[in-house]
């Protein structure tokens, strides 16, 4: 499924397969012992596929699959590519800090304007926060670009695992 939005930082996909969700989950669980190129972790209906620690770099993505039962013979697979949760949390924290500083410096500038005092410093800080927001966005895009080959490897592993179990999308 092609993504229509080019600004997506965490690509998602969804497709239906002709198999039960338990068969799919067991198929991924069996891959834990059959190969050592990826770390496969299962938690209920969720499968996490990531690279081993020695093969990871700062921008290494992981693939999160949620496998839901659609009916007795079909399942739906929801996939989400994303960075390491620690990296994602750090970026979200930085975005919230920048947003808070943007709002605070905007209020400070507005207050100084109304009081007739100099508002150059708070206005400058407000503009700096806008620049920092753009910088964070582009850093995230660069990280995604650096991790893109790894995303293809994760997707190929998922596809090959499904095919080895004789499962094809509907």
Number of helices: 3
The SSE string, one letter per element, is EHEEEEHH
Tally of strands: 5
Mean pLDDT reading = 88
Low-confidence stretches: none
Strand content: 15-25%
Please give the alpha-carbon distance between the first and last residues.
Answer: 13 Å
Rg, alpha carbons:
22 Å
Q: What is the helix fraction of residues, given as a range?
A: 40-55%
Relevant CATH superfamily of the largest domain: Kinase associated domain 1, KA1
Q: Within the CATH hierarchy, at the fold level, what is the topology of the largest domain?
A: TATA-Binding Protein
Largest sheet entry:
5 strands, antiparallel
Query: How is the largest sheet built, in terms of strand order?
Result: 1-5-4-3-2
Structural class: alpha+beta
Outline: elongated
Can you tell me the CATH class of the largest domain?
Answer: Alpha Beta
How many domains in all?
2
CATH architecture of the largest domain: 2-Layer Sandwich
Commentary on this structure:
The protein has 170 residues and is an alpha+beta fold. It folds into 2 domains: 12-84 and 149-162, TATA-Binding Protein, CATH 3.30.310.80; 86-141. The chain has 3 helices and 5 strands, in the order βαββββαα. The chain has helices at residues 21-34, 85-115, 120-164, and strands spanning 12-17, 39-43, 46-50, 61-69, 75-83. The chain is elongated, with a radius of gyration of 22 Å. The two termini are 13 Å apart.
């Amino acid at each position: 499924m092609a993504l229509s939005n080019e600004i997506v930082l965490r690509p998602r996909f969804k497709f239906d397969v002709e198999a039960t969700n338990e068969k799919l989950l067991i198929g991924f669980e069996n891959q834990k012992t059959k190969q050592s190129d990826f770390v496969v972790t299962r938690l209920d209906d969720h499968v996490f596929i990531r690279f081993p620690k020695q093969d990871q770099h700062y921008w290494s993505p992981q693939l999160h699959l949620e496998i839901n039962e659609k009916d007795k013979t079909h399942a739906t697979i929801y996939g989400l590519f994303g960075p390491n949760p620690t990296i994602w949390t750090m970026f979200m924290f930085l975005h919230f800090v920048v947003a808070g500083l943007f709002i605070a410096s905007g209020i400070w500038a507005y207050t100084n304007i109304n009081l007739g005092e100099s508002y150059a410093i708070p206005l400058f800080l407000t503009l700096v926060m806008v620049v920092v927001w753009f910088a964070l966005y582009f850093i995230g895009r660069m990280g995604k670009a650096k991790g893109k080959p790894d995303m293809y490897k994760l997707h190929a592993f998922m596809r090959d695992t499904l095919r080895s179990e004789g499962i094809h999308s509907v």
